[in-house]
Fold these 3 entries.
Entry 1:
Amino acid sequence: MNPPQLLYAFNEFSVRAQWRVVDDIVMGGHSDGHFAITPEKHGRFYGDVSLKDGGGFSSVRHRFNPPFNAQPFNRIFIRLKGDGSDYKFRLKSDPEAQFAYVHPFATSGEWEVIEITLAEMYPVRKGKRLDLPNFPGDVIGEISFLIANGREQPFQLLIDRLEML
């Protein structure tokens, strides 16, 4: 069995600009997400989700250049600490694709490891499940974290590392 392969870890070399926040303002909403790297070297995705004017989501995204070869792996392990809210982990083979593969997960408010089976990640576009095959397991061009729970709320998700196995 191969050892885990690091997909991404926050550390002293992490650059905030490599992560991009995309909120519902792209469609007229008013959610206000932010991303920072904490003094403890964790990614911090935080802000407020607003339902005003049809809004209701915030996300943070990271592109891989070149894309990450996911073929030898079948699972992702994400060490994180949420605020007790539900989130979605999303990935794209091609960052320009109009849909993403999704895995919803709940957080406990404590540090935990979320295990995701790649083959179970299903395709979604604008919150709607598509009638397409699940993630083919070839390459990962982009990863993202999304909050969209259908309610107004503050949120915070601390991210430590993502590993493939």
Entry 2:
Amino acid sequence: MSDTLWYALKDTSQISSPALLLFPERIEENIRTMLSISGSVSSLRPHIKTHKMAEVIQMQQRHGIQKFKCATIAEAELLGKCKAEDVLLAMQPVAANIDRFFRLMDAYPETEFSTLVDNSNTLSEMVSKAAKANKIVSLYIDINNGMNRTGCAPDDKAIDLFASIEENEHTKARGLHVYDGHIRHTDISERKEVCDTAFETILELKLGIENHGFQVENVIAGGSPSFPIHAQRTNIETAPGTTLLWDSRYAELFPDMPFLHAAVLLMRIISKPAKDIICFDLGHKSVAPEMGFPRVTILGLEDSEQIGQSEEHLVVRTNKSDAFKVGDVFYAIPMHVCPTVAKYQEAITISEGEVTGAWQVAAQNRRITI
């Protein structure tokens, strides 16, 4: 098999489409690249939202990675099942999810779980629950440094919130969490300049907290786009996630990042309804549909135009349609891999064009047992 067809299976006759294919050797190489960029295991806290699989967690653990970040209680439970040492639930729990978080701590006592708060009301609920359970809960303050999605402003109220955590016997302030997913400049020098400027507010906040007599144990910063920039800082944990599987959107936006595509969708032509029109069995239910077209990069058909999609269908215009017949197999790399993986119960693993097994997308649903 040539390098240009690294993704192609030798025999597709037993594969139902659409299917999610994973390439473990490429994931392994991406882990090595993450470690090379970060400089050390201690500064890495990879996010598992992209893959949601025990096998990928275990691959990272074999490289010495034991700190992880996740977005749901189910993902946190999966990490507990994998005996991860240190897990951050990077989604402030509210209402019933606070109870679930404490049940998670009870179910997996060997794992140190922490989560986020960004306001005094949620903190009060956490304190109340911890007091009733006679526990100490580890918390990070979620800081908004420009994305305007979650977090509190890096000001005096954040210092007061940190102090409230530290001064209560049932809570421990682990540090600061800041996600800067809004920084997506393609030029790495421009991305670095914007990222560094935004991070100055975090450093000022950290200094302000320390001037009040408190120690900021840790700062968790960024996601995949800002990963190479934050990796150059000292005493900072970086939290890349998409880097493990990579996708077409990030490959286009960030050519400076040398990660390999490790997740591919197998699809088939199911109809040729009109001249220059072909239809694939890759609908909204099989690939992330939240962005405009294109939803995927169709390998070998990159110059085609994706013109329509419904629940089970992807309609494409191409002047090459006469070269193909109904039933032909194509491969595609999703533009956004994270929500795409979550649409599949399992991923088929591939090595050298052969099927080697299947990995369950174990945290696909919102709940495993807790």
Entry 3:
Amino acid sequence: MEQKMKATDKLSWLEKISFSGGEMGTNLLFTVMSAYLLVYYTNYAHVNAAIVGTIMFVSKIFDAISDVAMGYVEERFAKPGAKARPWLKRMALPYAISAIILFTVPDFTSTVAQGIYVFITYNLFCTIYTMIVIPYNSLQALITQDKDDRKTTGVLRSIFSTIASTIVNSFTMIFIGWAGNTKLSWTIVIGVYAVIALIVYSLCYVNTTERVNAEEDQHGQDDKKLGFVESLFNVMKNKYWRILTVNGIFSSAVISLNMGSMFFYLAYVCGKPQSVAIVGMLLSMPMLVLIPLSAPIVAKCGMKNSLVAGVLIMTVGRIIVGVSGESSLMMIYVGTFIFALGCSTQWCSYPLLCYTVEYGQWKTGVRQEGMIMSANSFGSKCGTALGTALCGWVLAWAGYNGAAEVQTASALTGIKIVYVYLPVILNILSAVILSFYKLEKEYSTIVKELEERKAVGK
């Protein structure tokens, strides 16, 4: 039956939801690690903060490199019609287990032993995360080439991602309190998240099919196996991939700057630390409504145009906060909501990136879902690292003092730079970069030509 499936076949709703639901498994565990691991280490497991910071810095370098390595492994060892899905089956359980042991630091008497445990478990989680997320991202380009279904799965992925981040950011500490607010409480709560992740990834594996590869094999085409260096250079030739990767670096840096400096801006520049929780909710919860509402607008205006518009709307929202937020709490909320409104079209980057797979195949004769998705993930992590580094560098340059209740004028200026000015600049650069993306209009012609090549056995 699978051999009769075509790459352009429409997906059933079961397959759309099963695939997109995997995003919840990804973000429940990754978001709780990103948002609360440092809190767990320092406040509950009593790990030295300097040790944690050093481990995370060193590990981030390895983590970014492992993305590209995993993309190559996926490409190199792919089997007909089974390039990405098998990795979900292999890594779903290890992913769940690695998250649990990450939040289960034993009561070591030795600081060295404690540091070794943290180093091993942190890198184990990050590596397994890479081994399941890179194939999962690749799967979106493998289950269908239908443009509408790629848009739909992009929307659904963003919805499930928002649900997961909202649960983690809004309720994790409440769950920890219910579980007793002890170190063991974290193991229990993370265990529940891990079970949910295991279930949704299993459903994703069971209810999806790699039609694109199956159809290529049906036409008797041999899967080309490139060496690592050749494969990487092949991806670099893809001009539309380069555009989206640069955009990914900028957008990830913006999000990193936003989350990393939000407390400082609200507490010190605006003098409203009590608004942090509300601003955090305004950034995530409205997305559950805004993302579905954006779909008909995207259908009419196009994904690239909607993505550019969203970036510019984010810029307007941040300018409103920067101009009037210091004197008006309501304007902070308004600006934050407008920023979230702009974020509601960010899901378009998923299907636009999938298009670059067919473009690369059309241009070079080789499909590279794994390398394209992994290299893009590498760019996103570089953007996150860039945003985090810029936040720290600027605050240090401006003379920010965490022990001081009142910051100097230069420190307040530094906070404004990282929360308002840099995101505005990076968003404008994103809009400029994205303006060169023309593949959306060319895509149908490219797919048609690929079909014609298959028909004649080229």
